[in-house]
Design goal:
The complex is a heterotrimer of chains A (about 325), B (about 280) and C (about 350). Chain A is α/β, with parallel strands linked by helices. Chain A is about 35% helix and about 25% strand. Classes of the chains: A alpha/beta (about 325), B mainly alpha (about 280), C alpha/beta (about 350).
Amino acid sequence: MSAILSVQGLSVHFPTRQGVVRAVEDVSFDIDAGETLALVGESGSGKSTVAAAIMRIIPSPPGIIAAGRIEFEGRDLVKLPENEMRRVRGSRIAMIFQDPMMALNPVHTIGAQIVEALTLHTNLTRRQALGRAVELLELVRVPAPATRVGQYPHNLSGGMRQRVMIAMALACDPRLLIADEPTTALDVTIQAQVLELIGELKAKLGMAVLLITHDLGVVGETADRVVVMYAGRKVEEGRVEEVFRAPLHPYTRGLMRVSDFEGGTGQAMPEIPGTVPSPFEMPSGCAFSARCEVAVEACGATRPVLVVRGPARSAACLLLDEGRR
Amino acid sequence: MKQFWRRYRKNRAAVGGLVVVALITMIAIAGPYFHPVDPFDMVGRPYSPPFGEFPLGTDVSGRDILAGIIRGAPVSLLIGVVASLVATIIGVALGSVAGYYGGFIDDALMRTTEFFLTIPSFILAVVIVAIFAPTVYTITAAIAAVSWPSVARLVRGEFIAQREREYVQASRALGMPDWEIILVQILPNALAPVIVVSTLMVATAILTESGLSFLGLGDPNHVSWGYMIGVARTALRVAWWMTAIPGLMIVVAVIAINLAGEGLNDALNPKLRER
Amino acid sequence: MTAPLLEVEGVTKHYAVRGALFGEKKHVHALDDVSLSVRSRQTLAVVGESGCGKTTLARCLVRLVEPTRGTIRLAGRNLTNPSPAEKREIPRLIQIVFQDPYASLNPRRTIFQTVGDPLRLHQAATRSQRREKVASLLASVGIGPQLMDRLPHELSGGQRQRIAISRALAVGPQVIVCDEPVSALDVSVQAQVINLLKRLQAEHGMSYVFITHDLRLVRSLADTVAVMYLGQIVELAEIGDFKARIKHPYSQALFSATPQAARAGAGKPKRIVLSGDVPSPIDPPSGCRFHTRCPYVQSICRESEPALRPIGTRLVRCHFADQAGFPPEPAANSPFPLGEGDR
């Protein structure tokens, strides 16, 4: 199974007056063709920064990709000159966002915007591109696509705009779709529609999906593999069923407990006490140790390395080395 | 506060502007002590060029131009600052009430400000001053009267934006009286752009006052830079210094205030960007 | 059976919309004939998606919005059309916690000033007395007194939300309306705040009207559940009844659509996916408002609007609610599995 995207040792830093924010530190993972990899984490985990790094849209200054390689179609995206990256962005790797209005220009019709994406990356004439735009809208199940091409974003509902954004992303048949919290801002019933749509399209078009989310439920239902991030680092990786059934890292265990909780009014919800450490006050040891229920003294001082427990199955916890406790 | 100054200092032009404004203010305050010449006194031969017996020369009637510059400074500055202050207070008061309550009060305010904004403010100021005989008070009032509408619209906009925010809703749910919500809760959040606009308004006020004085509508008991330009208008070709020097002072003061005010804008804005 | 603490009857809220220049005046049907009640020490969960009216309902309860029709009574006082005396009392009886912790605290005022506001307004307390009281309020929500003189932007989302809760708590209300209070927080912090709310309820005995779309929170907090769609209540039931059986097709789809980690690896989820978007509340569909998306729609659904009627111990707004076995459960994975604590 060949990987279409290979992230190796990626680090993204943001130098500020108060110190360097290590938004992403030494993160590695592969995405195979046709699979959905979920990148899970809460605020400050760095998951969105990883996506931005792959697309090379990190705001710079001040952000920089401090280290690492991102291999895609035989090239290292980190070292790619901007004009070549532009040819990759939007056509070979596409991205959809939490807020469709980030991708949609309110003063252009949606047809014009899809056509623009097409004419930028392909040799289609405008008329051909318009035809393809209608096809794409049909593909994403926008009703009455021929009429919709002439409409503006504000004529559409939130769920519809999300679909249009997906259509734009798919216009040039990308091999990898990065979805950054694509359904977080949507109603639950619309979310279900959009997730189902992404699943269908993935199967139909044979593309891989990098799904960025904080919602373990979404991960459980749509992803094949999952990478859990905390405070900029990878803390666990593996196939979704395995990670959910038997999480190795205490943070993942905590998240699973919260997510699986089925108790009633009489029971307290399982908590993870404390909060994510500030990026300026990162402990020298494990970043999760202050909140960890099984932490030992060594955890605060020594940074854990990834312990491999199987093919593409690992977790970064000192206690794993000495056997499960 | 310290952060504010740090951001402000980054803008060298703004700091320069501030320094110049401070200098002009010092001239206005301390000048008369170092050069106690009445600007209306005929102290020498008319049409004397500068760098002679009189540092800046004399005007068409033999009055000392340096004295005129020194005595004109406080007139321009005071009228500028006071008019701007009055306009701001009126604008904030009316704009906040209109923005917060909306409805009929807001409509009434909007129609009023539209009236003021469709008439060129300078012409309106001329009309007002012409009707009520020109004194520093009527001039200040006239300038304030034509300036308050833009402040009001700005404040109204800020209040409309803020009134739906949850902290305002929470205050209403707590049973806070409207006046307290307007003054204590919303106003501190709405003030930043107002401060900037008021500062820039001082420059405009100075220009307006100079214009009025130039036309002969200034206070006859006080020398103003605009007045000096006005009386020397006919002699422009033979005695450039009589118009150029006061003109230069106006330009310098206005640019300095604009630079300082824009620096304020940049320094205050990062704080406005929440989240 | 104790009398309900909070009674909402027939509350309707329509907003006039400026239609086309020559068109007829249109109305946004934010709420239509909503009736419910909350007993003392109980939590009512109000569930629904955008446009269902839950936020409007929350605002009506704390008098930020005045209903077009209907009455709301709390502990015998009128919240709608109150007398001047009642008006002064109401903020001490019912308070609200908003969704967005970043916007619900005034960015230019310190925590002490913000939490002290209700004390200043409703209790004649000196500044030092207020400082003491604020410190103890903050302590009860797990915030240290050293944070009293900080500004909101210096604190995390979870901390701000606790502060918002302490502000709502300050005057000792009998009901607190919680409008999606944890949706904007990280998952690991959500549980902290929920547990805080539970503890406070046990200590102080107030009732909650808890607005959410999160299934887990409903299960964890609610004594009663009200599901709303396009301004109407479509199902109203005690939590036990609700967990055992969901009787309205929309409620079923809503909870079935919630992604659950527990379904991982169980193959494609047996989920009910509704077609279409939520219709606009300006022109609600004729007949049953849900008919445009209902998987079980029949012609009667398009023609006549079902009333909210009692089916057993619950209320359901559906023509077919009295049929046993309706709506049919999707095969395998029930959308609302019984938890350990329910058997």
